[in-house]
Design goal:
The protein has 61 residues and is mostly helical. The chain has three helices and no strands.
């Protein structure tokens, strides 16, 4: 929760999305016991955000 609230500069939606993503990545770590899996998943989320945002002309952050 603290991680999500730390993204308060992104607004309420940013807090919500970051909280959900943080929870999902924590679950990935718990089930895989692998930090590498979490890093790869985070990278894929960022890459998709970049690709989708670029295609739609959205500037993040």
């Amino acid at each position: 929760m603290a991680f999500a609230v730390g993204h308060g500069a992104q607004g309420r939606l940013g807090i919500l999305v970051t909280g959900i993503l943080g929870f999902a990545l924590a679950v990935v770590f718990i089930y895989t016991n692998s930090l590498l899996a979490v890093v790869v998943a985070h990278y894929l989320v960022n890459a998709l955000e970049f690709i989708i945002g670029g295609a739609m002309g959205i500037e993040w952050g």
